[in-house]
Amino acid sequence: MEPSVQSFWFSTPAEQGLIPCVDSVGDALRFAADLGSDDLVVLDLASGHFIDCNRSAHERLGYSREHFLTLNPAAIQADAELADDLMHDQLRVMRQQPRGSFATRHRARCGACRDVSVSYQVLDLCGRLVALVSHRDRTELDTALRESSRLGSLLQEAERLTHVGSWELNHRTGELLWSNETYSIFNTAPELTAPSYGHFLQTVHPEDRSLVDATFQESFRTGRPYRIEHRLLLGDGLLKMVLERGRTTLGADGEPLTTVGTVQDISEQHEIQQRLERIAFVDPLTRLPNKAAAVRQLARLLRMAGSERGIALINLDLDNFQSINNSLGHEIGNQVLQASGSCLRHLMRPDDWLARVGSDEFILLRPMAMADRLEALQWAEQIRRTLGNSPGMGTGLAVQPSASLGVALAPDHGSDPDTLLRCANTALMEAKQHGKNQLRFYTPEISLQLRERLELELSLGRAIDREQLRLFYQPQIDRGGSRIAGAEALLRWRDQNGRMVSPNVFIPLAEKTGQIHTIGLWVIEEACRQLQEWHRQGLRLGKLAINISPLQLGAEHPSLSELLAGALSAYDLVPENLELEITETALLNDPERAGEQLRQLAESGFSLAIDDFGTGYSSLAMLHSLPLDKLKIDRFFVERLGNDDADLAIVKATIVMAKELGLMTLAEGVETAEQLGMLRNLGCDQFQGHLLGKPMPARDFGALLGRAAAA
After folding, report:
1. How far is CA 345 from CA 4, 348, 388, 402, 593, in A?
2. pTM over 0.85
3. In 200-217, which positions are buried (b, 16+ CB within 10 angstroms) versus exposed (e)?
4. Which residue, among 380, 356, 371, has the nearest Cα to 294 in the 3D structure?
5. Could you tell me the CA-to-CA distances from 7 to 177, 194, 209 in Å, in that order?
6. HSE (CB half, 13 Å, CA atoms) of 79?
């Protein structure tokens, strides 16, 4: 007997042929790739209990496999009061819709809750209906749902009250049968409408019609199931969003016999999803699009641009923003971010696009007729100049941060969002390497330089463990020219490739990365170890000078005094054996902290010297207030003696001033006998340079000390 239309309306998905058949639970796992998750569970739809799972499904919730398989979906729901209702709703939906997804919350055995997306496929296991279910952690949408509980509850309610209509198309006769709910969704009634495929297409929104027809025709031709969301444009301009699912049965000759499908009115869910998406893709502080929105917009622009058009991308970072937060508070910091966003908006054309993608980081996009480097740079320069020169950015704020910018172009530097964003960020990093308020355009050379810097940083981090660091020692000679008054310990690095890396390169890098603390401690301990070894050999040195970084001087836990005390104790030395060389920069960075540290060191017995004197801007008052013992005259002035009267006057004034302050003077970089003679005549106390002895390994310097002692 042929099935009646009415019996089809109320037939189950299994009877409609929408549920795949499998022979075993293990065979069901072939659907895992389609569901795309690591957490897989097999659920018996009749009993509502779990009958199988993979390892991550039970371990992520803190259960053993045996315990987990005694549970049902209600047992792992986060809301215990609604757990049974939720489980019954989910099972009902699964029985009605063989494949789908929904959002829920699970509770682990320890009590911790997490948001998950659930996807499922109903399978026929030898006449037994089971569901292969995947659980996946949700991301940004969860934040939006938590921020908008009202919208989340509306979405949950809409999912629970969803109505699904069914239909059948007979391709031999052209007859289309609709269920009552289908008529309701199409806003009509059986007595008003004679359904047909042509009539159906006329109800589809004109902008969606060609895609919908192509999707259906593909199914009619191949028999493959389809799933598509599209709009309906009904009478009086009524607009609905529907979800269509269906499958075509083909005859032995490959011609279509029937197509059965479902149509679901998802207008309310779609509207809520759009509103949630707007929340998920908007930065709540500045009301600008966020990083996820920026990636999506950039991908859209790249698809539209093709090979004929270009896109300029600017990655902008506010300079010293963290200092504003730390010193003035987060409220002022937030006002600065809002003002920055407002200022940037006023620098944009109608087709430009702006997003806040990080704490103090923004991205600007501009479509262009072609990849025009000059136009992109002019735009970036206008932004850089305006941000740096607009007092308070027009808001009355007392702070005005400048910005560093990196610029990249599509398609020149990349044709996908990840590549283009990476290039702009590389250019930004290069800009920040050169200080504040800088602008850099991406080039492949910048990537190479950045990679080399990163490799150098990694190599430096392993230099101590690989025993690549060495101390060389350069003698310091007294006025008579025959006695070694002391020596300076100079750090040298030969990398894993055998190349000598200049201290002018790796010392600033170590300070920037914080590695200077580990390296500085190694220098102190190695210098003390070597000094003890010379003492054991009966070799005496006036003082051994060690260079101290400003970061070491400013450290608190442990302090420089504590590190020095530990090294001296370990090698049976006293503070009088060492001289600590401090640059003028260290004094200027934090004069109060530096002065406090230097007074503690002087009281402990250490000699203190100002290195590279004359290249900084320390005041006489500062020098007078500090417990210093020596000024080291920088080689820049020494090498110009005899060639420049101004430098001669500077050296002379420095020596006179030092004597007035009761300080010794040492001239660095003495290379010629003429320089040595002039410095002696000016009253300089000690000398250091290649004329008197080059930096040498500890063994050679020990031999030099031995010869000096024997002479």
Report:
1. 64, 5, 15, 16, 42
2. no
3. beebbeeebbeebeebbe
4. 356
5. 12, 20, 31
6. 10
Each residue's pLDDT tens digit, 297-327: 888 888 887 666 889 999 999 988 887 877 7
**Which H or E element spans position 61?**
none
Question: Does residue 49 come out as left (phi exceeding 0), alpha (psi in the -120 to 50 range) or beta?
Answer: beta
Tokens at residue 61, please? 């919730």
φ/ψ (deg, to 5) at 257? -100, -65
Task: Name beta bridge partners: 403.
Answer: 318
**Is the link from the previous residue into 411 a cis peptide, with omega within 30 of 0?**
yes
Pairing of strands 630-633, 664-667: parallel
Listed as ranges, residues in the chain with pLDDT below 70 are 1-38, 139-162, 306-308, 371, 390-398, 446-453, 585-590, 614-622, 711
Amino acid, single-letter form, for residue 549: S
pLDDT at res. 29: 54
Question: Distance between CA atoms of 14 and 46, rounded to whole angstroms?
Answer: 14
CB-count burial class (<10 Å; 0-12, 13-18, 19+) for 285:
middle
The Cα 318–Cα 315 span in angstroms is 10
Kindly give the pairing relationship between strand 164-170 and strand 176-178.
antiparallel
Rounded CA separation 656/658 (Å): 5
Spell out a b/e string for 131-158, using b for 16 or more CB atoms within 10 Å of the CB, else e.
bbbbbbebebbbebbeebeebbebbbeb
**For 480-497, what is each residue's pLDDT tens digit?**
877 899 999 999 999 888
Single-letter amino acid code for the residue at 56 = S
Q: Give the other-Cβ count within 10 Å of 445's Cβ.
A: 9
Record the tokens describing residue 71, joined without a space.
Answer: 């549970």
